[in-house]
Amino acid sequence: MKMFMLGFTALLATGSAFAATQSAAPVIHDKTGFFVHLDVDKVLSSTDISQQCGIIPARLDYLDHQGQEHVLDYQVEGGGCIDDH
């Protein structure tokens, strides 16, 4: 009986761990374009454009107000061009 309970407990622990990894929601990759409405609650990371020059690819990782993680890839002009007047 002890062996049965030990096996059953191990099975429950394995199932719980598997369910926890399966419940993680996938990251949403937002589409770029004009008039993109973003629901940004917290910025996780963003590309540093201060030392870049010209049009460069940038990325914004953020959480929306429901806690879902989003990724937005876009093009932006860097702010590090020396000859800007």
Task: Provide tags for this entry.
85 residues, alpha+beta, Spermidine Synthase, Chain: A, domain 2, four-stranded mixed beta sheet, 1 helix
Task: Please describe what this structure looks like.
Helix content is 25%, strand content 31%. With 85 residues, it is α+β, with helices and mostly antiparallel strands. It has a domain at 26-77: Spermidine Synthase, Chain: A, domain 2 (Roll). The chain has a four-stranded mixed β-sheet with strand order 1-4-3-2, with no helix packed on it. The longest helix is centred in the first third of the chain and has 21 residues, at 2-22. It is elongated.
The secondary-structure element order is HEEEE
Q: What does the average pLDDT come to? A: 77
Distance between the termini: 82 Å
CATH architecture of the domain at 26-77: Roll
Helix content estimate: 10-25%
CATH class of the domain at 26-77: Mainly Beta
Briefly note the structural class of the backbone. Answer: alpha+beta
Estimate what percentage of residues fall within beta strands.
25-35%
Radius of gyration: 22 Å
Beta strands, count? 4
The low-confidence runs, each spanning 5 or more residues with pLDDT under 50, are 16-22
How are the strands ordered across the major sheet? 1-4-3-2
Structure annotation, total helices: 1
| The CATH homologous superfamily of the domain at 26-77 | Protein of unknown function DUF2790
Major sheet: size, sense and barrel closure?
Answer: 4 strands, mixed
General form: elongated
CATH topology of the domain at 26-77: Spermidine Synthase, Chain: A, domain 2
